[in-house]
Design a protein that fits this description.
Helices cover about 40% and strands about 20% of the residues. It is built from eight helices and seven strands. Strand 4, helix 4 and strand 5 form a beta-alpha-beta unit. It starts with a strand and ends in a 6-residue tail after the last strand. A seven-stranded mixed β-sheet has the order 3-2-1-4-5-6-7. Helix 7 crosses helix 8. The radius of gyration is 16 Å and the shape is globular.
């Protein structure tokens, strides 16, 4: 049984090195089996653009746990086993990597991940959803009637997980889209050649 940990991050400013919210949805056997979302105290300044985009106010986030507190209490356990998945995954993987490094949190050096946006852009994805004009999360969700309150981490992660479930139930070969991310260097690295 493959386990996928679908996640979404919101950030407080353009540095994208801290989180102001995170959502996680665990997928097993093509079904969402667990969800979690929370605001995060980023301990840095918010920019007006990010406040407008996410609706998260600095005073709201100030009452939330910090990333290290969340990591120890919940996130490390949730994210430890399984392939990480996000929509536009390189962005969320980068935010995760930067947060781990900013707080000096030691985790695994390499994490496997997959991107539902890339899946949608693939020839298989275009055959599966030929009518969509683009592969943004809100467009794909509207096409499949998946509920979405966009740029809310909990809703985005659950919607992305529902999209992944749709792909899995329609036999998309997800293993072909799995990449490796160097969490220390903050970049995707070449995958070993499959035989």
């Amino acid at each position: 049984m493959e386990r996928y940990v679908v996640f979404d991050t919101e950030t407080p400013n353009a540095a994208n090195d801290r989180m102001s919210a995170i959502g996680v949805a665990v997928v097993e056997n093509a079904e969402i089996v667990e969800t979690f979302s929370t605001l995060v105290n980023p301990e840095v300044r918010f920019h007006a653009f990010n406040i407008q985009l996410t609706g998260i106010l600095p005073e709201q986030a100030a009452l939330a746990p910090t990333f290290p507190e969340l990591w120890e209490a919940k996130l490390a356990w949730l994210m430890e086993n399984g392939v990480l998945v996000a929509h536009n995954a390189p962005f969320d993987m980068s935010v995760l990597s930067k947060c781990l490094r900013a707080y000096g949190i030691q985790w695994k050096p390499i994490a496997e991940y997959a991107c539902t946006c890339q899946m949608g852009r693939s020839p298989w994805g275009r055959r599966c959803l030929p009518q969509v004009p683009n592969h943004r999360l809100d467009t794909l969700c509207a096409s499949l009637h998946i509920p979405l309150d966009h740029h809310r981490a909990g809703s985005d992660s659950e919607a992305c997980a529902a999209l992944l479930c749709h792909y899995l139930k329609n036999d998309l070969p997800v293993e072909e889209y799995i990449r490796r991310y160097d969490l220390l260097a903050g970049c995707t690295i070449p995958s070993p050649r499959r035989r």
